[in-house]
Each structure stands twice: as structure tokens, then as C-alpha cells.
From TrEMBL:
Segments forming domain Response regulatory: 8-122
Domain HTH luxR-type: 138-203
Source organism, top-level taxon: Bacteria
Entries under Pfam families matching the protein: GerE, Response_reg
UniProt modified residues of type 4-aspartylphosphate: 57
Protein name: Two component transcriptional regulator, LuxR family
Length: 207
């Protein structure tokens, strides 16, 4: 089973025939789809979590697609947004992409373009969530270290040998080895290279 295709896709468009055509297309390719006639309807009914994506008409009565996108940003929505736009709204859609929207499709578009955009959006969403989970797990591991274990960690990342670490910290080599072993276990590292790569990658993502 393709678990990505079990992720919810929400179509938000005030044009019912157009919504129905997108619903038919996506369901015919085994996607899980829900339709909403307005941005307000979507916001009132859906709490976004896990993997998913939105297909949104950029110009709608009431709250526009662009206003919905901005509101979702304020709420920390994790789902990528694909805008559907008419020719006159392309500049607006380009600006939305610059501000974080995933993609936009100008009417009329072919079916494959929509399917490709949806696949890309779902893959992006999964990567974001995996990255967030990875960062959270690394933060928990670092928080589990004692002050001394963290000091040893920093020295190891600097490439220092146990004897040098012992001299720097004013402790015995055996004590360094004990702290180092516990630190490696808590960090879930199989090797020094594994440890260094994981911590460096974490700090780059955090910065």
C-alpha cells in the first residue's frame, strides 16, 4: 500500500463543478480527498496534522485563498498549499510561492500536472515532518546528557583524544571513558563519525 496516498488532500474552491472534477481525478488515482466550498468551511472543520496537502483557489468570495494561506501560516499549518489560479492572478500566485506556498497551477492545466504537484507536495510534507521529528529526538537526547557528558561530547566533536579531554577537564582517562560510553549510548551513536555527523547536522538545521 502506498501510505502517502492515504494522506488527506483538501480541495478548497467555491466552484462546485470544478471541485467535483478534481475530486474525481484524484480519487480515480486512489488519493483520499475532501472538498470544501470556502476557506471558512475548511478552517471550521479541519485540524491539520500528519501528512497532507491543500489545493486552493487563490480567488474566492469571503476569505480568499491567499488570506487562507496567511492564516494557516499563523496557525503553524504543516500542509503544503497548491494554488489554482486564473491567468490574471499569476503574479499573486508567484508572490505566494515566494512566501512559502508549494506550487501553483494556471487554468487550464492538464491532469498530470496536478498529480505531479500533489505527489511533490505530499513528499515535501513528509520530509518536513520527518525533519521535525528528527530534530525533536536529537534535542531530547542532548537534554538527557549530564553536564560532564555534554562537556565530553563537545571535546569529542572537536576531535580530541581521551587523554587530551582528561587533561582539559582535570579528570582521569578512565573517567573520560566512562562518561564517553554513557554519552554515546544516550546519543544512540554507533561510532564517533556517526555522533559528529548527527550533532553537526542538528546544529545546522537549528541555525
Amino acid at each position: 500500500m502506498n501510505t502517502t496516498k492515504q494522506a488527506p488532500i483538501h480541495i478548497i474552491d467555491d466552484d462546485e463543478p470544478f471541485r467535483d472534477s478534481l475530486l474525481w481525478l484524484l480519487e480515480s488515482h486512489d488519493y483520499q480527498v475532501a472538498c470544501h466550498g470556502s476557506a471558512e468551511d475548511f478552517l471550521g472543520r479541519v485540524v491539520s496534522s500528519g501528512v497532507g496537502c491543500l489545493i486552493v483557489d487563490i480567488r474566492m468570495p469571503g476569505m480568499s485563498g491567499l488570506e487562507l494561506f496567511e492564516e494557516l501560516g499563523r496557525r503553524g499549518n504543516p500542509w503544503p498549499v497548491i494554488f489554482i489560479t486564473g491567468h490574471g492572478d499569476v503574479p499573486m500566485a508567484v508572490q505566494a510561492v515566494k512566501r512559502g506556498a508549494h506550487d501553483f497551477l494556471e487554468k487550464p492545466f492538464n491532469q498530470q500536472a496536478l498529480l505531479d504537484a500533489v505527489d511533490s507536495a505530499l513528499a515535501t510534507c513528509r520530509q518536513r515532518l520527518d525533519s521535525t521529528a528528527s530534530l525533536s529526538k536529537m534535542a531530547e537526547r542532548l537534554d538527557s546528557l549530564t553536564v560532564r557528558e555534554r562537556e565530553v561530547l563537545e571535546k569529542v566533536i572537536e576531535g580530541k583524544m581521551n587523554k587530551v579531554i582528561a587533561d582539559d577537564l582535570g579528570i582521569s582517562i578512565k573517567t573520560v571513558e566512562a562518561h564517553r560510553g554513557k554519552m554515546m549510548d544516550k546519543m544512540g551513536a554507533r561510532s564517533i563519525a556517526d555522533l559528529v555527523q548527527a550533532v553537526v547536522a542538528y546544529r545546522q538545521q537549528k541555525s
